[in-house]
Amino acid sequence: MPGGEPVSLLDATVDAVRGLDEEAAAAARDRQSRMTKPPGSLGMLETVSEQLAGLSGQCPPPMPEPAALAVFAADHGVHAQGVTPWPQEVTAQMVSNFLAGGAVVNAFAKQVGAEVCVVDVGVAAHLGDAAGLVPRKVRMGTADMTQGPAMSREEAVAAIEAGIETARDLVAAGNRCLLTGDMGIANTTASAALIAAFTGASPAQVTGYGTGIDEQTYAHKVEIVRRALQLHRPDPQDPVGVLAAFGGLEHAALAGFILGGAALRVPVVLDGVIAGAAALVAQAIAPESTAACVAGHRSAEPGHALALEALGIHPLIDLELRLGEGSGAVLALPLVAAAVRALREVATFDSAGVADASASVVSPTERERH
Ligand SMILES: O=C(O)c1ccc[n+]([C@@H]2O[C@H](COP(=O)([O-])O)[C@@H](O)[C@H]2O)c1
Ligand SMILES: Cc1cc2nc[nH]c2cc1C
Predict the structure, then answer these.
(1) Among 75, 106, 325, 327, which residue has the most ligand 2 atoms within 8 Å of its CB, making it the best to mutate?
(2) pTM of the entire structure?
(3) What is the ipTM of this complex?
(4) Nearest alpha carbon to residue 72 among 108, 131, 122
């Protein structure tokens, strides 16, 4: 556009996000009804297969392989308010652990054959050129959201764009499924504030026990979330403003990662409460981005269920996990792959010569009606 404003990466990405291709989704629904199984018997896996068909615009959709997990790491100024028992240094120490292959998520990723990519978007330590680390630091951790905005709008956009670029690079490397991960001591407090801002739920409803705190610290954590919401009076119509007020740099990068995956029409399997908060940011920026999201699991953090409800997506597993790192997303990957494989490989009643009585089958919803 000669003489015009250059289009930012964020704007170009938002422009590219579209909803599901209804024709491909309908073809998947039709095929599911003709496969050699009672209609509906694969439950949520049928829904996932239809979603991925609609996302790719193909029926059947490609297998979600290979898959890559991005662990976005950052620190939080609100740590100074005593909302977590863990010292802030644990964020940087866990980054080293991920890079050495020693964290839980490394073991789980090995189990399912996913690549692990660790991105520093805001760790409050100089990590140097640690082998394997993607250095995208926007600042040395956020500021304390109870004292002022956690970051500037420009920093929020820079971190979103780091997430978009991570998605773009992983897809350019051949990955066909993206998994979200996070590491950031105190980030369940930031997640609670973000979820309250977007859903209107109260601080007590969205705040959880994070890595593990006593009742007194829990009451204090709720009060910190309440104070931050009162200070910033967030406007959910201004998602970058909400991010700047409360967000972690990892929340911003995760929102960008979701937008980037959605723009490239690659499924993004979400982990726990941090990813749920980030997906609300992405949805407020580009409503159709949620069409690319699969909720890997439901975390024990109460705000996560509220975020998933607001997103309108259902978790594939509930193992009472509350680890983060991408652990729940990675564990859900084989279910997403199984959903697609069934659609690709299972015979139809016609092709297998199996008698089809599906026309006289009564689905649970129909049964309820009678
Ligand atoms: O994914 C979740 O739902 C989740 C729930 C509780 C804790 N975490 C992880 O624990 C850290 C934040 O916990 P906290 O108590 O310091 O706010 C951060 O590194 C998260 O990845 C993650
Ligand atoms: C040890 C530890 C590992 C983690 N992984 C994700 N969040 C974490 C928080 C702590 C404290």
Answers:
(1) 325
(2) 0.98
(3) 0.99
(4) 122
